[in-house]
Amino acid sequence: MGKKQHDAARVSEPVAEESPDCSAIKAEKKKMKKKKDKQNQDSAKRKLEEVEVQDSTEPKTKKNKKDKKSKKIAEEAVAVETNDAQNGGEDESVRDEHVVVTGKNIEDEKYAPTTTFSASGLPKEVLECCKSFEKPSPIQSRAWPFLLNGRDLIGIAATGSGKTLAFGIPAMMHVLGKRKGKASKGRNPLCLVLSPTRELAQQISDVMCDAGTSCGVESICLYGGTSKGPQISSLKSGIDIVIGTPGRIKDLIEMGVLSLKEVSFVVLDEADRMLDMGFEQIVRSILGQTCSVRQMVMFSATWPLAVHNLAQEFMDPNPVKVVIGSEDLAANHDVMQIVEVLDDRSRDKRLVALLEKYHKSQRNRVLVFVLYKLEASRVEKTLHQGGWKVVSIHGDKSQYERTKALSLFKNGSCPLMIATDVAARGLDIPDVEVVINYSFPLTTEDYVHRIGRTGRAGKKGVSHTFFTQQNKGLAGELVNVLREANQIVPDDLLKFGTHVKKKESKLYGAHFKEISANAPKSKKITFDDSDED
Ligand code: AMP
């Protein structure tokens, strides 16, 4: 992973310090970036005049001073690792990869990071699966001491960080500890891993089955779309770890062939995605059937309110939170970002005006983001009625319709598409010229993700965002993103204030600890996916 490991002494410092060489690289990169940004900014201004979309008089924004370490990291946060500046394209913003750990008593000696496999104290047969790795990945290094000591843990880390073994090895140790020499045969599962999709479940299961061969821990993958017969036979003969998607697990419980009463180690992987896909009730019901004295691990790429609520309900009141990610939320500098503050009701008319501007040829790819599937249907219908050739992807469409819409958009037969965040997640769509945010997303992270659909592969792109009174809570964060990319900040946006909620990390951890339990619930977005069972 190419990360610079800090020694254990550094771990007790309240905030991370940069290593001197890292500072030098960053300073040089910042200098180059500043120059480049100045050029981009001039070009952005010229383009902006061309498209006449707003008349902000905001002067060129100074580079937003990043008060690095600091206030952003919560009191008990301990940044344990600072990575070398990422070395992407020349316009890539300089970011630090951090591991930030928060929680009660995290500085206890027993929670010191596991910097080497030999220092982990894990049995040889359990570590067999790591033999090709040089050292524990940052998430493993931080998560293992907490998980092996029975703490509940929230991990904010993406696939690719080594998170499967970060929870997988403690899961196997949990089984070995409970089993005390007895074989799996004939017993109910002791660990459960819930995954939102079949693909992810299978991926986790492959890792766990492989890791379990040397230490005799048996795992099984349970997901829909395949025959239940072999899954039932495996369950009957006894298993240690069950990995699966919520729908099939619920089915098997209802059939009486799967009992979770002995499950005392639970992992929710991609918890945010699981809830986005409408699994909240099933997940709650499944969790309710596990042993009341259990250890819980939740991994999530983001931390929305619904995930926060789930954690509050089912986890220890003082879970440890390990965040792997960049401290600086930054947009792609190849995207000219235009933000237009307007009244909710004028968006339809304005959208049509923008399409006449950006999509006149009806040949270039334009992607319009909305928030909810009903909104997607409504906007699609309105545009159809206005004579626009448009397709959409959202959760109310069948998989067939979604695949078809996407291929029409991709092959250029219909280069105008409406999409919800959930349906568009993970899609790789080349050559999108303009992204229009008809509705502002629920988080600024999603905003950055959406606009990143354009300005790819060295090309320039345009994003045009509607911002309404309803979104005012995110104004401060948006201003920061715009300033960081040297974009024009409209006066109307500044009127909402530039306050940014205190949080542990800009990229992750949004809302955690910040939102009271009686705050209004966010709307559930359901997702008709064939992965459901
Ligand atoms: P994951 O995030 O669990 O999907 O893992 C991503 C990839 O990282 C997989 O190919 C793992 O085999 C690999 N991996 C897991 N742990 C380590 C490690 N400690 N060092 C290097 N690679 C690892």
Automatic annotation (TrEMBL):
Annotated DEAD-box RNA helicase Q domain residues: 115-141
Ranges of compositional bias, category Basic residues: 28-37, 62-71
InterPro entries xref list: DEAD/DEAH_box_helicase_dom, DEAD/DEAH_RhlB, Helicase_ATP-bd, Helicase_C-like, P-loop_NTPase, RNA-helicase_DEAD-box_CS, RNA_helicase_DEAD_Q_motif
Primary localization class, coarse: nucleus
Chain segments carrying region Disordered: 1-93
Organism superkingdom: Eukaryota
Bias type Basic and acidic residues, positions: 1-10, 38-50
MF term (GO), any: hydrolase activity
Ranges for domain Helicase ATP-binding: 144-321
Keywords: ATP-binding, Helicase, Hydrolase, Nucleotide-binding, Nucleus, Ribosome biogenesis, RNA-binding, rRNA processing
Compartments reported by the entry: Nucleus, Nucleolus
PROSITE patterns found in the cross-reference section: DEAD_ATP_HELICASE (PS00039), HELICASE_ATP_BIND_1 (PS51192), HELICASE_CTER (PS51194), Q_MOTIF (PS51195)
EC number annotated for this UniProt entry: 3.6.4.13
Motif, Q motif: chain positions: 115-141
CDD domains hit by this protein: DEADc, SF2_C_DEAD
Domain Helicase C-terminal residues, every copy: 346-497
Annotated family: Belongs to the DEAD box helicase family. DDX5/DBP2 subfamily.
Described purpose of this protein according to its UniProt entry: ATP-dependent RNA helicase required for 60S ribosomal subunit synthesis. Involved in efficient pre-rRNA processing, predominantly at site A3, which is necessary for the normal formation of 25S and 5.8S rRNAs.
UniProt cross-references to PANTHER family, sorted A to Z: ATP-DEPENDENT RNA HELICASE DBP3
Protein name, UniProt field: RNA helicase
Organism the protein comes from: Acacia crassicarpa
